[in-house]
Amino acid sequence: xxxxxxxxxxxxxxxxxxxxxxxxxxxxxxxxxxxxxxxxxxxxxxxxxxxxxxxxxxxxxxxxxxxxxxxxxxxxxxxxxxxxxxxxxxxxxxxxxxxxxxxxxxxxxxxxxxxxxxxxxxxxxxxxxxxxxxxxxxxxxxxxxxxxxxxxxxxxxxxx
Length: 160
Hints:
β2 and β3 (77-81) form a beta hairpin. 41% of the residues lie in helices and 24% in strands. It is built from two helices and five strands, in the order αβββββα. By secondary structure, it is an alpha+beta fold. It folds into two domains: 7-40 and 118-155; 42-116. α1 packs antiparallel against α2 (121-155). The protein has a five-stranded antiparallel sheet with strand order 3-2-1-4-5, with no helix packed on it.
């Protein structure tokens, strides 16, 4: 009869770490998806692009990132924003400084805004990664439970 696999605590810690990653991705992705869906119903305000350009660093590790900012008014109060979508991003190069844009803002918190409402591929990616990590954690927990059950059965007098 083959020997029962031994329960290993390291496997449990790794599985719990994968489960924690799954929960983090699902919580983060869920929050961003909820914001993306809710933003489609937010009221709009006329805004103006104040920056849309790429900044490059030339140090030991050259990198670049896009700077996108805008300003808008709600009830005679001026706000600034930098969110293109719920997950970030920036518009294409056709949007220039001082161009007018339509801004969607949260009516309960007008300082919270974005330009492009709704879900995009990054929302699905975040939730998909969370789902994959959750499946991996579930598979790990099932394997650990099976291993613990088999090692318990091998330790009993009857061997079952």
